[in-house]
């Protein structure tokens, strides 16, 4: 059984926009799966349905045997500890330091009250420092997040997600706000830290180069439908061409 099983996920927004039309995706342990598609194809919505930042209308998401879609709010908060989310726009707290932002990845485990008063455990602080070293931001730990470059901010987001000891990483367009060189450095980092920690990743991207060079499998989405799901190494050019043909 796959670590993550997404089955028949459907989502229509209140505006009437149909975002997902019954999408199935599975992710095995240590596998990197790229969700590839144009803007509006449904890839970010699908990613956010996994941790229910977007509530699916129907279908199921099962992570390591737990049906995420059936959980109440309290159980969902607990389950989200297992899903490290890395956002396109970083989602850092600008007034906090780099170290404090990384430590915020423990709030699901330490509780909000402890976080408000910044009373973090010494073990958590040590782990946060080690992660800052690993992702290349140890020299910036006392800076406020709003003093960082885009690439540095994304590295903070990666370290924060890893603080949770997640079972899976959900990565939403991690390079779209970065220039190509920095974007490749961020993808290199993501790929290496995921392999080191034996964590699978689901990454939404619109860039074919990134999908082909940083994934084991590519799931092609178009207008809310899955149009292919193939190993990256054996992917035919025709499949990629289909992605960029506008749906009729």
Overview of the structural elements:
The structure is a single chain. With 248 residues, the protein is an alpha/beta fold. It has a domain at 1-82 and 203-248: Rossmann fold (3-Layer(aba) Sandwich), CATH 3.40.50.300. It contains ten helices and ten strands. The strands form two sheets. The protein has a six-stranded mixed beta sheet with strand order 6-7-8-3-9-10, sandwiched between helices. A four-stranded antiparallel beta sheet has the order 2-1-4-5, covered by helices on one side. The longest helix is centred in the last third of the chain and has 18 residues, at 180-197. It is globular. The relative contact order is 0.19.
Which key terms come to mind for this protein?
10 strands; 248 residues; Rossmann fold; six-stranded mixed sheet; alpha/beta; four-stranded antiparallel sheet; single chain
Average pLDDT: 90
User: Architecture of the domain at 1-82 and 203-248 in CATH?
Assistant: 3-Layer(aba) Sandwich
For the record, what CATH class of the domain at 1-82 and 203-248 applies? Alpha Beta
The main sheet orders its strands as 6-7-8-3-9-10
CATH topology of the domain at 1-82 and 203-248: Rossmann fold
Largest sheet: 6 strands, mixed
**Strand percentage, roughly?**
15-25%
- CATH homology-level superfamily of the domain at 1-82 and 203-248: P-loop containing nucleotide triphosphate hydrolases
Quantity of strands, as a count = 10
What is the string of helix and strand elements?
Answer: EEEHEEHEHHHHHEHEHEEH
| Helix fraction bin | 25-40%
Report low-confidence residues grouped into runs of 5 or more: none
Using the CA coordinates, give the radius of gyration: 18 Å
Give the helix/strand class.
alpha/beta
- Shape, per Cα inertia axes: globular
Number of helices: 10
Report how far the terminal alpha carbons are from each other: 36 Å
